[in-house]
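P.,

For your records, the input lines for the assembly:
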Amino acid sequence: MMSRFRLAVRIQSFEVWSCVLLVAVVGITALVVRARLDGVGATVECLTPWVFDNVVYDAARCDAPVNAFYKINDDEARLVMSAMMVLPLVVGLVLGAGLVGREIEGGTAATVWALAGSRRRWLVGRLVPILAILFALLVFVAITSDVLAAGRVPWQLGRPAFDDAGMHGPGVVARGLAAFGLALAIGAASGRMLPILMISALLSVFLWLGGYLLLEAWVDASSHEVAVPSGFNGWYDGGKFVGALYYLPDGRVVDTSFDLGALAPPGADADAWVASLKVVAIGVHSPDYPAWLVTEVATFGAIGLACLAATFAIVERRRPF
Amino acid sequence: MVAMDDTAMFQGSSTPSSLRAHGLTKRYGHGRRAALDRIDLDITTGGITALVGPNGAGKSTLIRCFMGFERPTRGFVTVDGIDPARDRPRALARIGYVGQETGLYRQLTGDEHLDLAAGLRRGFDRAGAADHLDAVGVPRRVRTAELSGGQQAQIALAMALGTQAPVLLLDEPVARLDPLARRDFLTTLRDAVRRGGSTVLMASHIIGDLESVCDEVIVLAPAAVMFHGSLEAARTGHAIVPAAEEVALDDLVASFTGLTGRRVSLVRRPGTGDASLDDVVLGYLAAANATRGAA
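Structure tokens returned:
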């Protein structure tokens, strides 16, 4: 068993070690950036004083660490998060493209398919070790991206934010598996590495865009009223909002397109009057993230599994050259 | 339906042929070019059969049909009575295979290839395959990328022999080897077959190498079998005469320009001929060209 695992890794050693190196570099960089964010000593009270009762921003104590925090956040953390966003796709693509495709192009498929007899058994033997490695890499990416994402919004106290949607937990793994499945199936169908890489890369871009559109559609479908604490300005709870509603004293509910100041009672301070109104946001907020995660994992997982099933069917039928 | 009945009949035979093709036709592409056209073959158990013919004659296609890698357009093939188009795993379990490319992983060593084969094929004789590599002096712990073409071919052959399959299909395994490596490969193959008693079908277009190792020869012209018989029958059953010499039309295979540059005729002279295998092959290929030209 170990021998077959070792051989499967040896056969794809270049891809495996490239991915391990890439994931290690980006993941460790994420952890280092997180440590740097924590290291500047910007407390939640300094970063978001408005969410606390009786906390007043202490400029002398907070200015330096807050400025340092945002500089690291903007200059370094954002860059690393961008890399981590494409990392699951890249890893899935690189490991998936060559698994069957390179065997066909390199002429080894004929040898091993003749030896194995059952192509299904051969594919299972090749898939299991690589899937195990892919899974381990994606879990590492998911953990490190969660660690960095949480460090970028410490006032969220570890709750996932929709700002980094797709970068949290099982969603990362599901996206990587979908990219892997796509590249694997295209590789099995094409049997030529250059077209495989080009088509898989293109489809991975569509996969990424599709994830974005899926999120937009899910937000539209799942939006609800979210209570907003008094003092709407600067409020943040990691949500994704499509609008806000104001409850007027006369019972009407109006959205933000309404000229609220014009409705203020004569002689009243219009700004203070508007600030006193009950306001709710329309959208989803961080407690809704697990529900999005279910949709995300189900969708991308289904794409990955469908591609795996298609690969078995293709391998069973196609010529080994 | 015909194929199924015929297959069943074959499975029931007490002395089944190892390899058989019946009305085998394989067409490719939109123009439906026939790579093989109504081929009938019956290769008896034991010995090495050379499958010779020019490029594009359908040698690889025939072998791939036996492997179940190509589905016949019409007709069928059997491997020990098993139709690979119907039951590929069972047919492949009776076959050891070496392809045109050696089909090896450049990054793996010889030992790792044997481990791979042992993991894929039940009953693979890993120790025997390793002994074979040792006997021919192929280092087993060196990556195949660093080995010569001849050494790589020996690894591919060791993997095929290690399957202990009753049938070996070799698709031009020596085409890219230098003469010494070709000789080593063929000698190893001949010795192994004599020990193991398997049936070997080996495609090649290097005729000169085959005379010393083959028991039977099949001359495959584009899409058609022109001659199938023992090496002895090929040699002693034919003679080369000057093209100007008058021969009975029934005896004439074809007239062609021989290796010496002179026009000669290949004629059938059962038991009294003295043609070389080169002459026989060239004669039958010339006959195939003449037939196609006339058509």
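Two observations worth noting. Chain A touches chain B through 24 residues (CB under 8 Å). DSSP finds ten helices and four strands in chain A.

Regards
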